[in-house]
Amino acid sequence: MSIISDSLKRIKPSPTIAVTQKARELRTAGKDVIGLGAGEPDFDTPDNIKNAAIKAIKKGDTKYTAVDGTPALKKAVIRKFKRENKLTYSADQITVGTGGKQVLYNAFMATLNKGDEVIIPAPFWVSYPDMVLLAGGKPKIVKCTEQEGFKITAKKLKKAISKKTKWIILNSPSNPTGAGYTKKEIQDLAKVLIRNKKVFILSDDIYEHVRYDNFNFFTIAQISKLKDRTLTMNGVSKSYAMTGWRIGYAAGPRNIIKAIGKIQSQSTSNPSSISQAAAVEALNGNQSFIKKRSNAFKKRRDFVVKSLNNIKGINCLKPNGAFYVFPSCKSLLNKKTKLKTDTDFVQKLLEKSNVAVVQGSAFGLDGYFRISYATSMKNLKKAMNRIKSFCESFE
Ligand code: PLP
Fold it and tell me: CATH 3.90.1150.10 residue ranges in the chain?
């Protein structure tokens, strides 16, 4: 009898973390590897936020807090939803966890029974299906093509809903494609969901503040009559370059929020008291960092998309947000290159050219790869030259 539980057999380790780890190992072994796998901003956390954490330590905010968030942080989250999304919540509709990841995990653990289905549009963030599987649910993957802008359509959503559907996950702007849903696209999806009356919506808004070209961000609870059936998740990791602080939050129906708190009370208890104090400053303090950082990301996005589209065999859409692009390498998967799959492509790219990216199949859509451009222009220039030489070496 194995010591490891059967539920662990249902899941795999995160492929994006695996790529980042592999790049780190190769670098330690002396190889000049450029890692374009990591999903975190390369910027440092702003000083006002760091100072709030230091102040909290000195003041003695170093003890357990309320399990699902301090009153001060819940207040800041309520203000954020009101200010930025015109959404009104009370404190018992808010939960704070150790990163958006824990909030999502708890939400699935709190709501899924064996066999319950969760609609996940692909390409998806790698953790969604595995979290659903771990909680005993069934991921229902709906592939969304490049022609559809990698976004689920109302028609596909309608077809995917069954009697067992409990949730649909919406992630805009998206990891791994950067695609953002327009107001009209969200409203079209909302029409299907309003008619259906049963399915809950998990809106993962973690990339809300990383967007370009005046792309208008909307979250489904704000522009439909679905607020009572929506759990809106967000966090400080991507917006304020705070991935290591581990603070995420969500707002939604009281019974779900209470159930999430119950799980948290028997697992991790409260997220770090110091990180919570820092998150209060992030949400309440000066927001100019967001604009400055988005401008820097935009320059990188423009450079990367242009460079990739200048490479023979690569084709890349220009995304609205996040810090990822999801180019196609389909034209290079053939007998001449001896590359059969996107996994072959990324492995050979790493072996021959020392550039680490992640295969599209890890995100549920074959024939693509994900580049994170959350790294310096210097690195990106080098990486684009290497990818070009690699792809054109097959000519
Ligand atoms: N959702 C998406 C789409 C993500 O890409 C990530 C992180 O990569 C998360 C949620 C979780 O972020 P965190 O746990 O750092 O708040």
Answer: 6-44+289-392
- What is the amino acid identity at position 301? R
Distance 101 CA to ligand 1 centre (A): 6
Contact present, 140 and 120 (Cβ < 8 Å): yes
Q: Please name the amino acid found at residue 194.
A: I
**pLDDT of 244:** 96
206 ligand 1 Cβ < 6 A: yes
pLDDT at 187: 97
Is residue 8 very low, low, confident or very high in pLDDT (cuts 50, 70, 90)? confident
Per-residue pLDDT of 58-92, as tens digits, reads 999 999 999 999 999 999 999 999 999 999 999 99
Pocket flag, ligand 1, residue 100 (CB < 6 Å): yes
Per the structure block, which two tokens stand in for 277? 């104090």
Report the alpha-carbon distance of residue 223 to residue 209 in Å, rounded. 18
The answer to whether residue 44 scores a pLDDT higher than 90 is yes
- Which part of the chain has CATH 3.40.640.10? 63-284
Fold of 6-44+289-392: Aspartate Aminotransferase, domain 1 (3.90.1150)
Pairing of strands 230-235, 369-372: unpaired
| CA distance linking residue 270 with residue 98, whole number of Å | 8
Show the tokens assigned to 350.
């790493």
Q: What is the pLDDT, as a whole number, of residue 18?
A: 75
pLDDT of residue 22: 81
Measured from the CB, is residue 275 less than 6 Å from ligand 1? no
